[in-house]
């Protein structure tokens, strides 16, 4: 398990789950609790919290797919009155439905809910603003991956374009914690689109090293993503030439199709 220090008080724990999913626990060592993001394997989450003598205060869910929301029911049965947040009625054991730009407070933390439909129609990303002590962070579920984006199960290329525009407008130093370890394959695809992209080549080296050591490749930052993630580079000549399109929605649709067949 990887721990990312946010500041003296908060940490993000990255927990691999199922085949290639990530669950996260955001821990507050001052108020002594944790917030679980997409805890599909609740035992793993609760074991870590017990070890750290922290209580589980809330669950936030990015979308209703089983590999993200599949642990909610068990958690709601184990911990009475736990708050379970999400943006879709299909999410198991939901207690609080959130909407776009709604701000939810858990302890002293404020999460801004960003509705990013397309992978699913009710997908929500959760953003915490930075301050003097820490950089901003965002849990992006299956909307934005490192060097990629989610499949368009319940939306169009235009929807994904709008959703990714919301995320790419976040501050460049925003740390991105996504829902799957897809980075290596994503980067290989990115390099098929832009073979001369130095940033992608450098990132590939770093990622290969991390994976060799069995370390997660999260987090990245919005600033990094803008340099090599083709789905955030629709206006770049190289990406337009590769897809043979220049209108951003058409480039997005073409990239997704190419990636699905990659
Ligand atoms: Zn999904």
Automatic annotation (TrEMBL):
<dbReference type="InterPro" id="IPR035680">
    <property type="entry name" value="Clx_II_MBL"/>
</dbReference>
<protein>
    <recommendedName>
        <fullName>hydroxyacylglutathione hydrolase</fullName>
        <ecNumber>3.1.2.6</ecNumber>
    </recommendedName>
</protein>
<comment type="similarity">
    <text>Belongs to the metallo-beta-lactamase superfamily. Glyoxalase II family.</text>
</comment>
<comment type="pathway">
    <text>Secondary metabolite metabolism; methylglyoxal degradation; (R)-lactate from methylglyoxal: step 2/2.</text>
</comment>
<keyword id="KW-0862">Zinc</keyword>
<keyword id="KW-0378">Hydrolase</keyword>
<dbReference type="InterPro" id="IPR001279">
    <property type="entry name" value="Metallo-B-lactamas"/>
</dbReference>
<dbReference type="Pfam" id="PF00753">
    <property type="entry name" value="Lactamase_B"/>
</dbReference>
<dbReference type="GO" id="GO:0004416">
    <property type="term" value="F:hydroxyacylglutathione hydrolase activity"/>
</dbReference>
<keyword id="KW-0479">Metal-binding</keyword>
<dbReference type="InterPro" id="IPR017782">
    <property type="entry name" value="Hydroxyacylglutathione_Hdrlase"/>
</dbReference>
<dbReference type="InterPro" id="IPR036866">
    <property type="entry name" value="RibonucZ/Hydroxyglut_hydro"/>
</dbReference>
<dbReference type="InterPro" id="IPR032282">
    <property type="entry name" value="HAGH_C"/>
</dbReference>
<dbReference type="GO" id="GO:0046872">
    <property type="term" value="F:metal ion binding"/>
</dbReference>
<dbReference type="GO" id="GO:0019243">
    <property type="term" value="P:methylglyoxal catabolic process to D-lactate via S-lactoyl-glutathione"/>
</dbReference>
<dbReference type="Pfam" id="PF16123">
    <property type="entry name" value="HAGH_C"/>
</dbReference>
<dbReference type="GO" id="GO:0031123">
    <property type="term" value="P:RNA 3'-end processing"/>
</dbReference>
<feature type="domain" description="Metallo-beta-lactamase">
    <location>
        <begin position="20"/>
        <end position="180"/>
    </location>
</feature>
């Amino acid at each position: 398990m990887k721990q990312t220090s946010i500041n003296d008080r908060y940490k993000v724990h990255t927990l691999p789950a199922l085949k290639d999913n990530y669950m996260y626990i955001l821990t507050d060592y001052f108020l002594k609790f944790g917030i679980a993001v997409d805890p599909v394997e609740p035992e793993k989450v609760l074991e870590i919290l017990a070890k750290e003598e922290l209580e589980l205060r809330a669950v936030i869910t990015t979308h209703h797919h089983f590999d993200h929301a599949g642990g909610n029911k068990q958690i709601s049965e184990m911990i009475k009155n736990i708050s379970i947040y999400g943006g879709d009625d299909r999410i198991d054991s939901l207690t609080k439905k959130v909407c776009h730009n709604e701000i939810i407070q858990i302890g002293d933390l404020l999460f801004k809910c960003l509705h990013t439909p397309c992978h699913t129609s009710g997908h929500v990303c959760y953003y915490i603003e930075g301050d003097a002590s820490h950089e901003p962070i965002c849990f992006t579920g299956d909307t934005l991956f490192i060097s990629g984006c989610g499949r368009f199960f319940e939306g169009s290329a235009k929807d994904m374009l709008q959703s990714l525009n919301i995320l790419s407008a976040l501050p460049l130093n925003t740390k991105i914690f996504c829902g799957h370890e897809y980075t290596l394959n994503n980067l290989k695809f990115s390099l098929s689109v832009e073979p001369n992209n130095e940033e992608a080549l450098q990132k590939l080296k770093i990622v290969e090293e991390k994976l060799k050591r069995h370390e997660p490749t999260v987090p990245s930052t919005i600033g990094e993503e803008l340099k090599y993630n083709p789905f955030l580079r629709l206006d770049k000549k190289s990406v337009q030439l590769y897809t043979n399109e220049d209108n951003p929605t058409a480039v997005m649709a073409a990239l997704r199709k190419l990636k699905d067949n990659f």
